[in-house]
Amino acid sequence: MTGVPLLSLRIGKVAPLGLCGAPSGIAKSAVTGPLTLAETGLIGDRQGDTVRHGGAEKAVHHYPFEHYTAWRSDFGQHTLLIGPGAFGENISTINLTEDTVAIGDVFALGSAVVEVSQGRQPCWKLNERFGRPDMARQVQSTGRTGWYYRVLAPGIVAPEDGLMLLERRSPDWTLRRIWRAFYIDPLNRAELAGIAALERLAEGWRGHAARRLESNRVEDWTKRLDSPGT
Length: 230
Prior knowledge:
The protein is of the alpha+beta class and 230 residues long.
């Protein structure tokens, strides 16, 4: 997992999304020059809902480009799946996926240093983006979610840069393993306890696991996954 070049470096402005016109920064465009990566994200990148998107634990969104082949196989040709950017990602690569990337993996990205903080938890804005009422549920059920980084050291990132692996702090806790614990085997208490204690995982996700342990039940995903009014 070393020396992985960027296929695309992307930022977006807030604009109305879908039939409901919800403000969103999911439609991001490729940049041709260097950008400053600050603690809360790439300068110039915007979010329509700053409570649920962006911030220190979700500063950079990474989506594997190899997933696009699987989506085209599932749904056929779609204009959004021609090139990177369909999922609101800031960076796109090949050869890094949820199967191998783990919480706490530290990468050099240009002159910045970033750390994997959590997987992406899909929401209904993906439904609006793709014009499919089940898209968020499909992303969740397949595990083709992508992930987020926190910024350990701000710096400059250019489209010709890549990700260089520097350190693995919890290599056993791959993003795939955590996805499986949250969505496939959601009341596995041993896995939930491990997640709740996982130091380098974003605090919100550790709290999520702790609450499920305490209640011994799975929360309702409807509000997050289904578009308003459906």
